[in-house]
Request: fold
Amino acid sequence: MKKKAIFGLLLLILTILASWNVLAADSLNILENSVIVSGNGGIVAGLFDVENTGDTTLTITFTGGLLQGPGGALQVELPNNIQNFLPGEVDTVIFTANISNTSTGNYTGTITAIGGTAQDNVAVTIEVLSNGLGLSRVGAGTLLHTSDAGQTVSGSVTVKNERNAAIGATITGTLPFAQNFIAKTENIPAFAQQQISYSFTVPAGTASGVYNGNVDVSWNPTISIPMQVTVNPTKSIGLPTKVSVSIDMEANATTTFTITNTGNEDLNDLSISFTPIDFADDDGDALSLAFSQSDNIDIPVGGSKTITVTVGAPAKVDSGIIEGLLTISGDSISRTLTLSANVQGILIITDVEVHSDDSDRRIKPGQLFEVEVEVENRARDIDLEDVEITVFFLDGSDTLDDDDGDDLEEDVEIDDLAAGEDDERTFTFRMPFDVDDGDEFTVVVKVEAVNEDDSSQKFFAENREESIEVDKEDHEVEIFIARLEQGIVSCDRFTNLEVGLRDIGEDEEDVVLEISNMALGLRQTDSFELSDDEDDNNFEIIRRFPIDATRAREGTYVIQITALYNNRRDVVTASLPLVVQRCGMEEERVPREGEEEEEKEEAIEVRFTSGRDTFIPRVSTLFTARKLDGRESMWMVILLVLAILVVASVLGWGAKRVYEERRR
Reply:
C-alpha cells in the first residue's frame, strides 16, 4: 500500500514537470524592421530595440553586420551580448561602423539577434555621404628640368584623392611656352594615390636661360606645383632623312631639301659635301651633283634655307637606284641625309597588252591567249644588242606552272635595237587546266640588253602592270579531238571516228556521247564519267567509233557529235563531213606511221558549238564536204519500209503454213 502511494506521487511530479516544459518557450522580437544611418566619415552609430517575448530567461548574441556597397564590404561593429534577459524585458542595443575610408554610396546588410532557440533580424543601411575633400600632392619641392631647344621634356607628379568618391583630375602647365604642354585627364579612385605624367616641348629657337612656371593639377581645389626649366644654349638643324629624284640617262633632273635652324643660336658658314664614289654604279661610272649653294650657308635662329640639287646621269652610268649621303657640317654641326637617284634606263617597256577571246582578260583553262610586248631604245647615241624579252606569270610570289609542272614562261631574243628604235613581240600561252575560277595572275615582263660598243654596260627594265584572270565554269566539257581516220572514202567505205572530251569545269560530269547521221543509218551512244582533276586518267577520254558507209550513195554526209552533261542540261556539239566517192577516185586519209603525208585538198574548218559559245577546236581534222539532199534521204527511207513489209509478209505466210500442217 505504501509502495503504491509512493509510485503515484512520482507519477504526479512527472506529469507536472511535463506540463511545465510544454508551456515554457524561447521567443524574442526586434521591434524595428530596418535601421538607416548616415555620415560622411569617422564613426557612425545606429540602434534598435530587442524584446524577450518568451517565457524563459535568455542570453542574446548578435551575428551578421557585413554590409555591401559601391566600395565593397563594410563591417559593422555588432552590439554587446545581453545577459539574463528576462521574459517581457526590452533592451536597446547600439552598433557602430567606421566609414573614414569608405567610398560614397549605400551599404546594406542585416544584423541577427539569437537567444536560445529563437532569433530575429533587422535590415541595416549605412549611407556614406560626400566628405567634401579633394586632391593633395604627395611630396614637395619644385619640379626641375634641363633641356635643349627643340627637345621634349617629360615628368610626373604624385597626388592623392582625399575624397570618398572618384574624381577626374586634369594636369596642365603654365610656362612661357605653355602652348606646347600636353594636357591630360586622369581618373583617380576614392582615397587612391596616383602618379600623373606630363610632357611638353621646348620650341626650337627658344633662347637659353631659366624659365619658371607651374604644373597645375585641377579639380577642387587646384594644386599648383612650381616648375623650373633650364634651356641650354644649343646649335642644331632639322633635315629630311631622305630626298629622291628620277632621272633619264643622258639627262639632268633636280630635287630640293630644306635646312632648318632648330637651336637657339645663329648658324654660320655651313657647307654641303659628298663622296663621289657613293654616287657611282658597279663600274665606277658616277652621277654628277651640283647645289644651288654648297658653302657659306648662314641660318638665323628659327630660320631655314632651301637647297636645290641638280643631278646628271651620263650615258655610261647603269640604270637603277643609286644612293649616297650628303653631309651638312660647320659651326659645331654635322648631319647627313640620303639622296636617292632612280636612273631610268634607255631600255624601256612601252606597252604590254593581253589578248584573249574576252575583252576583260578572263581566260578559260586550256585556252590560248597572247601577250604583246613593245620595247624601245630611248638613247640618242647608244645601240643595244642581245636584247632579250621574258614573260611569265606570278600568283603572289609563286610562279604559275604549266600542265607539265614547268614555269609557264617564254623568252625571245631580238638581235639588236638601235638608238631611237622600238620593236614588238607577241608571246602565245595556254592557260593550265589546274587552276580555279577567279584566280588572278600578274603578267611579268622583263627585258635586258647590253651596250653594243661596251658589253660591260647592261640595261634592264620590268613591267608588272597587266594581269589575267581565270574564267572557269561550274560545268563545262570541251571536245578537243574530232577527226576521221579517212575523210574521203570510195572503194573501201569503212572508216573510224575518233572523239576526245575533257572536263574543264569545276565539277565532275556524267557525259552521254552521241554520234549520228540519219542518212548513213548511224546512231551510236556511249556514257562515261569525266573527272575535273587534270591528274586523273578520266580528265580526258577518247572514244573510237566505226563508220560503215558501204550502202551510202556518192555525196557528203555530215556526222553530228553531241555530248550531253550536267544532268543533260548542257550540251557541246561538233560536226565532221564524210565524203563518199565512186570507186576509183582518190581517197583522203590520215597517213599511217612510216608513210609520207599526201597533199590534201583545200580544207573546210570544223566548228564546235556548246550551249554557250561557238569555238574552234585546238585539234581537228579538216575536210571538203557535200551533204545528201532531202529527196535522196526520203527514197532511202521508203525503200527501207517496203523491204520490211515484204519480209514481214513472207514470214507471216510461212507461219500460217506451219500452223495448218500441225492441225492435220
Observations:
- The first helix runs from residue 2 to 23.
- Residues 16-22, 587-641 have pLDDT under 50 and may be disordered.
- The longest strand covers residues 458-470.
